[in-house]
Amino acid sequence: MRKNRTKEADMKKTAMIIGLSLALGTSSVPLYAGKIQSACLKSDRRVDRATCSCIQQVANAKLSNSDQSLAAKFFKNPQLAQDTRQSDVRSKERFWKRYKEFGELAQMHCG
């Protein structure tokens, strides 16, 4: 039960940070695009700059630099995402849990 409360508090804190970033007008494209934003903009998917910027802001709040590097590769290589998700390697399992939480938050905040 305590673990759920901690996770819920962490999600609320992250949501607050993202909401504050968006409210301060950081949804415009910065001079430097992060790894996730760059991959998003280069992808075959039809996603606008504001959405890619928002996803990067969520990544900054939720993922480490190394997590972002791996996640950015998924845009070009979806099979890598599948292989990572199905991996029995503990570090990849932990990454996937963080990545899944990132995805849920990005969907919630960025549409």
From TrEMBL:
Protein name, as recorded: TrbM protein
Taxonomic source organism: Amylibacter marinus
